[in-house]
Automatic annotation (TrEMBL), chains A, B:
InterPro entries: Dehydroquinate_synthase (IPR050071), DHQ_synth_AroB (IPR016037), DHQ_synth_fam (IPR030963), DHQS/DOIS_N (IPR030960), DHQS_C (IPR056179). Its main location: cytoplasm. NAD(+) binds at residues 70-75, 104-108, 128-129, 141, 150. The keyword Chloroplast does not apply. This is 3-dehydroquinate synthase. Binds 1 divalent metal cation per subunit. Can use either Co(2+) or Zn(2+). Belongs to the sugar phosphate cyclases superfamily. Dehydroquinate synthase family. It is found in: Cytoplasm. It comes from Paracandidimonas soli. Its EC number is 4.2.3.4. It is an enzyme of class 4 (lyase).
Length: 364, 364
């Protein structure tokens, strides 16, 4: 088993990565927990809920099960309230522990529920998608969406443990694997050129879920993310580099309606746009931009941004929370393996967006 | 001007207490704030919004105004979302500052909005009731209610400053003054016997809002509360004593429907019940119970609990978040000026509740 430690002001916790962790979930429940709520969705539950519940019940504690509707379009207040309703109806107290079994939507919404329920209860992340395993389950960013923007309502709130069972990726649709790999290559792009090269060399192996390659990709991604969030939990500086590709990506998701493109697909495409912007603003070499595009394509993500119209693109990006004082900032690459947050001239941005002026690809 | 310092892991901030602070609100806005949202209700706005806005606009920053419906019954998700809608429609970013101008409901809901908006923005508390000035605005407890329980959804989230203008109490209804004084005498009961005696000697002066007496009561209450929350921000131990009278009080509020009794009224009456329970469980002398009752009456709060029926009382108290693992715990007094959290035998609780078997007093 690989263990990666995360150490933030808001909490210190382990990420365990190994096949079969699902059957050891009881290990991650604190001894003084008064009850456990397993929160998942019907899609994940069909594969894994009974094993997870058996593992949790081995602690001898009461386990309740809560199912939320599946999909980014349900990552909202209404779904969040389904959790609160269930916790209160079952009288879970402030020493209860929530367990988030699912992808990024489940992790984000359960984490936020844990942050708010009785002003904070403990929770365990059990991510079941590549994306959640390498990104959203680590670092304590929790949130729900608002009609006017993604992840606008949330909290920085750390889990007590992240349990990554690499076996669960076997039941994942190909499209979800590809989308998750977009976040994997992001880590190479922003902070580890050798890992980016490793991803280039192993793109096919990753796409076909070779267990060894996938385990390495997950552990290395978690190490890199842990390094960043341990240094900057609340995104006051360094952590912003993790948003590489995300300002474009969020605009794609919001512009097409949440759930049309997967988050990782939007980020993959957004990284190409961010690389193009990096070329204009910071002089990232053209062949580096081409390498980004090739690798995004090789892992199976779309490379053509939808045509939202330039003004709509900019409008959507302005509501993004990385805007400060009205000035649009982007995470850009001076070279592969290095990132910085940077204000961008309007003209450069518009030229990059003009390249998106082609019919939107239907991804849903 | 009196300044009380609060120092918690979640933030260090001053409480300023003085007449006329409302006109100096600009002083509390951090220099790097990108915009300010003044959030209040129509009742408070009629008296103070224009002065507050003038003071905030003196910073040269953009000020938006948000009005929420007035009353505990609106301390819910729907009202919270009105804040998020306004902040997003006006494109306030994560360096914006929220200003809560109002009583405890406004302070709790705005504080929670600040905790969640873009995963946390700064906020200033400007409490306009006695209750909010001595209690809810200090210490970072923020929340909204859920149909199944009061303050069930919230966060520990500290303001950057608390600005207490003692002049604003002049426009407060008598009933609100009395309700707030219940929390003032609570501090004496749980941790400062000399202050409790001072309250007994000054009950009339407090009730008629004598400026000197009121200023002393507010500053001393803030000092005592700051002492507790600085030692235990997240209510893992000591801070629980601040809930003296609150388990009974919350049951009154939930049982009659939020908004029927004022929170302070319910706490005042709840403190008498908690004193009676203290007599049975910890041997608090009968004359001490009588002093609690007399002082609650002297400040103008109801002393007869509503007849909710014993089973309903217990049911309502069990959902209270101070329950852990199903065992009912109460903050009790071994003597006036000292408090401890304590598990209570069911029989003692039922005997105290049996005394509530009389027609409910209509307080609305």
């Amino acid at each position: 088993m690989n263990t990666v430690e995360v150490n933030t002001p808001g909490g210190r916790y382990p990420i365990h990565v190994a096949p079969g962790r699902l059957d050891r979930l009881g290990d991650s429940i604190p001894a003084d927990a008064t009850a456990i709520a397993l929160i998942t969705n019907p899609t994940v539950a069909a594969h894994y809920a009974s094993r997870a519940i058996a593992a949790l019940e081995s602690t001898g504690k009461r386990v309740i099960r809560v199912e939320l509707p599946d999909g980014e379009q349900y990552k909202d207040w209404q779904t969040l309230n389904l959790i609160f309703d269930a916790l209160l109806q079952n009288r879970l107290d402030r020493k209860a522990v929530l367990v988030a079994l699912g992808g990024g939507v489940i992790g984000d919404i359960v984490g936020f529920a844990a942050a708010c329920y009785m002003r904070g209860v403990r929770f365990v992340q059990v991510p079941t998608t590549v994306l959640a395993q390498v990104d959203s389950s680590v670092g304590g960013k929790t949130a729900v969406n608002h009609p006017l923007g993604k992840n606008m309502i949330g909290a920085f709130y750390q889990p007590v443990a992240v349990e990554i069972d690499t076996d669960v990726l076997n039941t994942l649709p190909d499209r979800e694997v590809s989308a998750g790999l977009a976040e994997v290559i992001k880590y190479g792009l922003i902070m580890d050129p050798a890992f980016f090269e490793w991803c280039e060399a192993n793109a096919d192996a990753l796409r076909r879920r070779d267990p060894q390659a996938m385990a390495h990709a997950i552990v290395r991604s978690c190490e890199l993310k842990a390094q960043v969030v341990s240094a900057d939990e609340r995104e006051s500086g360094l952590r912003a580099i993790l948003n590489f590709g995300h300002t474009f990506g969020h605009a794609i998701e919001a512009g097409l309606g949440y759930g049309q493109w997967l988050h990782g697909e939007a980020v993959g495409c957004g990284m190409i746009q961010a690389a193009e912007l990096s070329a204009r603003v910071l002089g990232l070499p053209a062949d580096s931009v081409a390498r980004v595009r090739s690798l995004v394509e090789a892992i199976g993500c779309p490379v053509a941004p939808p045509d939202l119209g330039t003004d709509r693109w900019i409008d959507l990006m302005q509501v993004d929370k990385k805007t400060e004082g009205g000035q649009l900032r982007f995470v850009l690459l001076p070279r592969i393996g290095e990132a910085r947050s940077q204000a961008v001239p309007d003209a450069d941005l518009r030229q990059v967006l003009a390249q998106a002026a082609q019919p939107a690809t239907e991804q849903g």
